[in-house]
Amino acid sequence: MKSEPAQKPPFSPRIRKKRKQARKEILQAALAILRTEGVDSVTLASVAGRLHMTKQAIYHYFPSKDALMKALITSLLEEEVDALLLAVAHADSGQSTLSTMIRAFYSHYIKNLEAFRTVYCLSQLSPPNQIGMDETTIRDEINPRTHKLFDLLEARLADDSMSREKREQMRQLAFVAWTSALGLMTMLSLADAVGDPLKHSNQALLDRLTSVFDRSMAF
Fold first, then answer.
1. pTM, whole model, 2 decimals?
2. Distance CA 54, CA 174 (A)
């Protein structure tokens, strides 16, 4: 009769806290490299060098660059959602909710296009199940965050007298507004990458886009 393999004892609370802090510092270093040098410069070696650690030490927390990038994308997305939640929660009225969200999305990424490209472009260019967007990460890390945002948007747009169908329409409208902000930022990111400024100013495009959703809420 074979004996069951011995299970590793769980980490103590002190060790778990220490590991959590170490992971946070590694992600902060990766983010700093991303912002100053670009995504191609984010490697286990570059992060280790920035923290005066060995590459082998990084492996204790992230076994590969893919694992590191997966955690980095999740962290960046969490920052985005937190920024949008804060903005929406302080919107002047339900009618201005969507335009407030769009402007917050723009403000969050316009000075950090590398972060935007990492979250929304890198995964599309990578093999399946790598660089952050595998099924498990989407289900366990990304969906709960985005659901929280759209729950708040629905609550700000709807009222108790609305039917379930009408509330669903409000949620769909919120999603369209978010994807519109994503589309605008994608175009601005592309223009920046190729060094070909758009004919219209950023502010003019942003104002035009938000006015569309402000009018949609006036009816």
1. 0.85
2. 46
